[in-house]
Amino acid sequence: MVVTHGSLQPTSGRCALTIGNFDGVHRGHRALIERVVAAAREAGLQSSLLTFEPHPREFFAPEAAPPRLTRLRDKLELLAAIGVARVHVARFHKGFASLSAERFIDEVLVGGLGVRKLIVGRDFRFGAQRAGDFAMLGEAAGRHGFALEAMPDVLFEGERVSSSSVRAALQAGDLRRAERLLGHPYAVSGRVAHGEKLGRKLGFPTANIRLAHGAPLAGIFAVEVEGMGPAVASVGRRPTVNPLERPLLEVHLFDCDAELYGRRVKVRFLEKLRDEEKYDGLEALKEAIARDARQARAYFAKHG
After folding, report:
1. Which residues of 139-164 are buried (b: 16+ CB within 10 A; e: fewer)?
2. Taking residues 255-260, what's their average pLDDT?
3. What are 128-149's pLDDT values in tens digits?
4. Which terminus of the chain is less hemmed in, N or C, by CB atoms within 10 Å?
């Protein structure tokens, strides 16, 4: 998969295209992208996807924007696994946000990406003030000679699949429902950063991953670290000692003592054990962590 960033230059290429944030790359996203890949193959086009960084909601209202399900790197890896040939990551800034719907069609879709087939949902909106809609795209398709197709909502077990529904499941601690909607276990990846070494002092050293875009879930979890094995993890603000402004992912691996600082790791969330709590002192916190570790080990012993 080819990934391009930033400004688009005039192109002579021809593509089948879809557009969106694709946060989480859930079953609905997968169905849409698979349809784009198939349409591109049928018409001899390049399958392409346009996404944005940061998410538009983060640009317009950063304090009110929901936590991301996936970081950009994770999202690109999931998209590549589906088979799309090209992803363009448009920098969503003031200039891009002010593009009129007409200029978005002319300069981005037609001139910059060379769209010949566009597949989006009927509720798709675009351009400054979200002035562009599916009807406008239909008119533009006739003028510019590209085909337009409406992608219906994807239902799974009777429920519309959306990033919001995945986020709600994670916030409720329902990891199984989130996995069913995503089509894969929920995971977070990032580089292990140096912390205050508190876990090491308590006898439970942790790999710390900063969550720059917040977290859609919180609490204590049984997790698996890709390539390193089972672990117990905390996502939260550490209310007992040195509370944090932003949530932190702390992972205690059971069977790995390798040096992890600076390494990128992927953590899959398998079972929520409990909510985060504040304890009266370090000894009570240490006892709670020990119970969490025993409970997580019991989960893995039961589930193999």
Report:
1. ebbeeeebebeebeebebeeeebbbe
2. 75
3. 999 999 999 999 999 999 999 9
4. C
Report the amino acid identity of residue 162: S
Render 138-186 in DSSP notation, one character per residue: HHHHHHHT-EEEEPPPPEETTEE--HHHHHHHHHTT-HHHHHHHHTS--
Tell how strand 2-5 and strand 86-91 pair up.
Answer: parallel
Work out the number of other CB atoms within 10 angstroms of the CB of residue 76: 20
Q: What is the pLDDT of residues 181-216, one digit of tens each?
A: 999 999 999 999 876 655 565 557 788 999 988 899
Q: How far is CA 218 from the centre of its chain?
A: 16
251: nearest Cα among 188, 301, 211, 209: 209
Domain assignment present for residue 199? The answer is yes
CATH number reported for the structural domain that contains residue 252 in this entry? 2.40.30.30
Q: What pLDDT shows up at residue 197?
A: 58
Residue 249 belongs to domain spanning:
185-303
Tell me the pTM. Answer: 0.89
**Cα 21 from Cα 39, distance rounded (Å):** 21
Q: Name 248's bridge partners.
A: 210, 236
CATH number of the domain encompassing residue 17: 3.40.50.620
The two three-digit tokens of residue 148, written as one number: 């337009």
Structural domains in the chain (count): 2
Examine the domain organization and report whether 125 and 37 are in the same domain.
yes
